[in-house]
Amino acid sequence: MRREHPDKDVELWCEDEARLGLKPIARRVWALEGNRPTSNGRHKFESVFVYGFGHPSSGRSRFLILPRANAACMGQALADFAGWADPDRRKVLVLIVDGSGGHTAKKLVVPPGVVLHRLPPCIPELQPAEHLWPLVREALANRVFNTLDELTATLTTRCHWLTQHTTVVAGAVGFHWATEHDGYRSI
Questions:
Q1: Which residues of the chain have pLDDT under 70?
Q2: Domain ranges of the chain
Q3: Helix, strand or coil for residue 124?
Q4: pTM of the model
Q5: With contact defined as beta carbons under 8 Å apart, do 178 and 55 qualify?
Q6: End-to-end CA distance of the chain
Q7: Per the database record, which ranges form the Tc1-like transposase DDE domain (predicted)?
Q8: Which residues pair with 69 in a beta bridge?
């Protein structure tokens, strides 16, 4: 990429989406011996999708909450990301993505300056962005939300917190192979 675009900086980013909904996320909790902790469980299948972008070297991140995971929403997320990460269009943004339908659809509109690098199938452990989701879900654990608006408000607060705490994000997505390659450090 650097040889193809010698006049531009090349940045390596990762992206993934997660479905989060009204069905509670149960986690272990401490309780006194002999006392069983209460747990809220119900089956509500309303959900939203969080699109997460992470920069492995710096920990910068961007999150969008959208109603679906499809080519149209992915195109919307990519356009928002490109405008935020490179408003002057002076960079090439290489984005590591998995092989989900929204990433491979023929109708997907990829903005100029963004290059999608698709990982081979069935290896989610190589996708740095997969490690964003435990950080996001932490704010939802052992909580019950009655509406998508309540859930979205909590998600928005958590995602904003993550964007402000780059060291937390870098610790999650900063895979060694994504932060150093060919003797260069990603910027």
A1: 2, 29, 38-44, 178-187
A2: 9-23+43-182
A3: helix
A4: 0.85
A5: no
A6: 14
A7: 12-151
A8: none
**What digits encode the pLDDT tens for the residues 30-74?**
778 888 776 666 666 789 999 999 999 999 999 999 999 999 999
44 to 20, 51, 106, 144: CA distances (angstroms): 11, 21, 32, 10
Superfamily for domain range 9-23+43-182: Ribonuclease H-like superfamily/Ribonuclease H (3.30.420.10)
- Of the CA atoms within 13 Å of residue 89, those in its CB half-sphere come to 4
Q: What is the 3-state secondary structure (H, E, C) of 57-98?
A: CCCCEEEEEECCCCHHHHHHHHHHHHHHHCCCCCEEEEEEEC
Q: Distance between CA 95 and CA 21 in Å, rounded?
A: 26
What type of residue sits at position 126? L
- Rounded-to-integer distance, Cα 129 and Cα 88, Å: 25
